[in-house]
């Protein structure tokens, strides 16, 4: 098979590494890719939103399977365009990717089908939003409706902050058109857990659990980012929690989308909050999480290509999804100043070390080649992942491996997976 992966981050590197293990794959391309993905795939200078060029390339190279890693092209309808050209594609069509593309849609879906989530209201009028906030309980959560690189969520402690938040999202348009509509949601407390799943339109198979760390600074301080690290599995995702979610959240979501005429095939990412009143859905994503994929995929025993094809063909019920009985931790190495402003173009050393140690991985997020050298090319630069027999060992291994890699202005959190110690 010839496979094309669409995307350029750490998630796509993890997908490429996983796909490269498949005996079915002869040749792999990635558009646009990065310096790490180049180890597994031929990188092609086509952007993820250049749909016409991607379709033309897939036809020219006679691609057998396209895997769309990123949210923007999924929500924009890339899968529809590839399928219209007769190209098999793993990922939801546009009318199903709305599950991530519109928070207002997903909240209304959960309300309609009685899927547990936080209380909320949707607003298109800033004045109406402010009038609602004047009667609300604090803290409260404001969410831009559309895609905002994981950063369009504001937690407001009082009315003054909330009014400023409405201005930021709806008037100043800090997150662009994503802020044309806004969700105001009750603030939930508890442990967060991420559960990724494969879906074929009818059947859902969940993967091992994980937990992301969104904030830039230690102790969950600072601004929201795309994710500063993850661990898997979550010790807080107990058998009891899993059984509840199977019954009230996972299959109900798949069935709800089908009932709405929006058959979902691909990945559903469930962002869960384990509240004192039981698990509730924080958010849905329509693709692998980043950096969740970097701890989940290395632990998966199955052939990723076979599972992706089963999702496309509607035969996922025949797949026995299996994961290693171990743990993994990913620590993101970022550029100092991320997620606001940062410098790029610094040489990276120490990457060769990962080839010498089994169970250690370095997933490239923001890198590129400068001649023969690999240099920094983004806010999140690398995701250093390590396995261990349990979470504590995996965490120690991952932090030890961060010392192998050096570049100017290297920044990371030092408490990824610290919650493990409290489990």
UniProtKB/TrEMBL annotation:
InterPro entries: ATP-grasp (IPR011761), ATP_grasp_subdomain_1 (IPR013815), PreATP-grasp_dom_sf (IPR016185), PRibGlycinamid_synth_ATP-grasp (IPR020561), PRibGlycinamide_synth (IPR000115), PRibGlycinamide_synth_C-dom (IPR020560), PRibGlycinamide_synth_C_sf (IPR037123), PRibGlycinamide_synth_CS (IPR020559). It is an enzyme of class 6 (ligase). Coiled coil: none annotated. Belongs to the GARS family. Keywords: ATP-binding, Ligase, Nucleotide-binding, Purine biosynthesis. It catalyses: 5-phospho-beta-D-ribosylamine + glycine + ATP = N(1)-(5-phospho-beta-D-ribosyl)glycinamide + ADP + phosphate + H(+). Its cofactor is Mn(2+); Mg(2+). It comes from Ruminococcus hominis. SMART domains: GARS_A, GARS_C. GO terms for molecular function: phosphoribosylamine-glycine ligase activity. It comes from the Bacteria. This is Phosphoribosylamine--glycine ligase. Pathway: Purine metabolism; IMP biosynthesis via de novo pathway; N(1)-(5-phospho-D-ribosyl)glycinamide from 5-phospho-alpha-D-ribose 1-diphosphate: step 2/2. Residues 107-313 form the ATP-grasp domain. Its EC number is 6.3.4.13. The gene is purD.
């Amino acid at each position: 098979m010839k496979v094309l992966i669409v995307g350029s981050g750490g998630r796509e590197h993890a997908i490429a590494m996983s796909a490269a293990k498949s005996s079915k794959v002869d040749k792999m391309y990635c558009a646009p890719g990065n310096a790490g993905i180049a180890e597994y795939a031929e990188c092609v200078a086509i952007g993820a939103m250049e749909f016409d060029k991607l379709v033309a390339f897939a036809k020219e190279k006679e691609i057998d399977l396209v895997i769309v890693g990123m949210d923007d092209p999924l929500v924009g309808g890339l899968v529809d365009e590839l399928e219209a050209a007769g190209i098999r594609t793993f990922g939801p069509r546009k009318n199903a990717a709305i599950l991530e593309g519109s928070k207002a849609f997903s909240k209304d879906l959960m309300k309609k089908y009685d899927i547990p989530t936080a209380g909320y209201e949707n607003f298109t009028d800033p004045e109406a939003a402010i009038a609602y906030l004047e009667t609300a309980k604090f803290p409260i959560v404001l969410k831009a409706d559309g895609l905002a690189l994981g950063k369009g969520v504001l937690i407001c402690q009082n009315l003054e902050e909330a009014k400023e938040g409405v201005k930021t999202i709806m008037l100043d348009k800090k997150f662009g058109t994503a802020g044309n509509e806004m969700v105001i949601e009750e603030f939930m407390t508890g442990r967060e857990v991420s559960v990724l799943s494969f879906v074929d339109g009818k059947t859902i198979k969940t993967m091992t659990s994980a937990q992301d760390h969104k904030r830039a600074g230690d102790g969950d301080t600072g601004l929201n980012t795309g994710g500063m690290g993850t661990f898997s599995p979550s010790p807080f995702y107990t058998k009891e929690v899993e059984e509840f979610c199977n019954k009230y959240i996972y299959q109900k979501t798949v069935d709800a989308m089908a009932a709405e005429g929006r058959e979902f095939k691909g990945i559903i990412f469930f962002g869960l909050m384990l509240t004192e009143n039981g698990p509730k859905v924080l958010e849905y994503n329509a693709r692998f999480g980043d950096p969740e994929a970097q701890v989940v995929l290395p632990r998966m025993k199955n052939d990723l290509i076979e599972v992706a094809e089963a999702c496309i063909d509607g035969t996922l019920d025949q797949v026995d999804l299996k994961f290693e009985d171990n743990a993994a931790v990913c620590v993101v190495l970022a550029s100092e100043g991320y997620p606001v402003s940062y410098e790029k173009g610094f040489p990276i050393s120490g990457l060769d070390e990962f080839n010498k140690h089994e169970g250690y991985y370095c997933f490239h997020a923001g890198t590129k080649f400068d001649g023969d050298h690999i240099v920094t090319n983004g806010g999140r630069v690398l995701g250093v992942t390590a396995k261990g027999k349990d979470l504590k060992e995996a965490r120690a291994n991952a932090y030890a491996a961060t010392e192998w890699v050096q570049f100017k202005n290297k920044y990371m959190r030092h408490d990824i997976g610290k919650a493990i110690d409290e489990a």
